[in-house]
Design a protein that fits this description.
It is built from 20 helices and 7 strands. It has about 450 residues and is of the alpha/beta class.
Length: about 450
């Protein structure tokens, strides 16, 4: 009687279509193609601890399961998002039981392994070293930054790539053709619908299958066919893959910055729109554009900084999508502007000097003297007011601490407005040199020639 009330557990299409063997596994030919090292290690059973690094939906978890099945190993899976030291110890205890009672190896699969802190990573390190478990970690983040060196040195990192559109198309066609695990009710799919889904999936097989399953609910008729229109309805609110806190975030903002620096307005616009399309906060991009204006354009075109600040202000005032056009305008302007990192280099050089030098006193002639006592102590004595000098320039005056004498940090480039700035600075330095010769002969005030 109770059978009448049992409900069949729903199993998503992406789960049902999970590959069971290497031959069913699409993509990653650079790792699993014939003759490739990982494939040979799996087939020969000569395995080692490893980390799978790649974007979501490329088969990291599935590949770990296939490996365990291929070598007849016990598979213990933990999620670093939910697990702690207690769960790690339980997994190790199970591995010891499998080894001692059944003589089986255990593969410990740790999903999102980068979420484990140092103490948690250290907790299973001894068991990796003594062979109690064979570790397979999966991460979407760069292991070089997220995993302990001790753990990373004991694992080989395999980079899994986003699936090609052709690989996604093959996965979708397989899900439609498989009447046992795939779509039910003999549903077919139009070719243009397959291509649209494959493109929208953005290299993520799981996402592709989820979208396919939703689209199948919209197919109509006695012999239903998933049309392009069905897929378009599903994709109305869909966005591309963009991990706001992970590797893709930093890769794409890096690509945007480098495109601006490389004077490629088209590529800069492409990466800007990619980030917006993926859900990035436009205000974050606007702030970074301001940084680009100072770091890569600087005084070659000072208008770039004003335009970047104005774009940021417009984005804050208008919001999306109106404000994004102003940010796009700034991105294109910066990419097309003359480039100079002279200010950036000068700032870093000055910082480096400040950190390694003592805190020298301000020379007396540069100090303010608001009181009689300070005047009696020669504060401000012999200071030359620039506006009283020819061309408002006190030739030969020194504004550094006496111990430094003179230093040059800012070297304008021969592009944009900095051409004119360089001409002026060269002229002023020549006047300084002439004044020094008249005052000190052939040596300067610090005794240097």
């Amino acid at each position: 009687m109770t059978d009448l009330f049992k409900q069949q557990v729903y199993n998503p299409l992406a789960s049902r279509m999970r590959p069971q063997t290497l031959d069913e596994f699409f993509g990653q030919e650079h790792l699993l193609g014939k003759g490739q090292s990982l494939r040979e290690a799996i087939l020969s059973g000569q395995l080692h601890s490893m980390v799978f690094w790649g974007p979501p939906g490329v088969g990291k978890t599935t590949l770990a399961r296939i490996i365990a099945q291929s070598v007849d190993a016990h598979l213990e899976s933990v999620s670093a998002v939910l697990a702690g030291i207690k769960e790690i110890r339980a997994a190790v205890a199970k591995a010891e039981e499998e080894r001692d009672l059944r003589g089986r190896k255990t593969i410990l699969f740790v999903d999102e392994v980068h979420r484990f802190n140092k103490a948690q990573q250290d907790a299973f390190l001894p068991y990796v070293e003594d062979g109690t478990v064979l570790l397979i970690g999966a991460t979407t983040e760069n292991p070089s930054f997220e995993l302990n060196n001790a753990l990373l040195s004991r694992c080989r990192v395999y980079v899994l790539r986003s699936l090609s559109q052709q690989a996604i198309s093959n996965i979708l066609q397989r899900a439609v053709a498989d009447r046992k695990k795939g779509l039910a009710n003999n549903i077919a799919i139009a070719e243009d619908a397959v291509q649209l889904l494959a493109g929208a999936a953005d290299g993520d097989a799981r996402k592709a299958l989820n979208l396919l399953e939703i689209a199948s609910d919209l197919a109509e008729g006695e012999q239903p066919v998933i049309s392009r229109k069905n897929v378009e309805e599903v994709l109305v609110s869909d966005t591309r893959r963009f991990d706001k806190g992970g590797e893709y975030f930093y890769d794409q903002i890096s690509a945007l910055h480098k495109s601006v620096r490389g004077s490629s307005p088209d590529a800069a616009l492409y990466w800007f729109v990619r980030m917006i399309d993926g859900g990035c906060d436009p205000l974050y991009i606007a702030r970074r554009v301001v940084r680009m204006a100072s770091e890569d354009i600087g005084n070659a075109d000072p208008r770039a900084l004003s335009l970047a600040l104005n774009a940021w202000d417009v984005q804050e005032r208008l919001g999306s999508p109106e404000g994004e056009l102003a940010v796009a305008q700034a991105v294109i302007y910066l990419a097309a502007a003359p480039k100079s990192n002279a200010v950036y280099r000068a700032y870093n050089a000055a910082r480096a000097d400040i950190r390694k030098m003592p805190s020298y006193d301000v020379p007396l002639h540069l100090r303010n003297a608001p009181t009689k006592l300070l005047k009696e102590l020669d504060y401000g004595a012999e200071y030359r007011y620039a506006h009283d000098e020819p061309d408002a320039f006190a030739a030969g005056e020194n504004y550094f601490p006496q111990e430094i004498g003179d230093a040059h940090y800012y070297s304008p480039v021969d592009r944009g407005l900095e051409l004119k700035i360089a001409e002026k600075l060269n002229r002023l330095r020549a006047l300084n040199s002439q004044a020094a010769q008249q005052r000190y002969g052939k040596t300067g005030p610090d005794g240097k020639r």
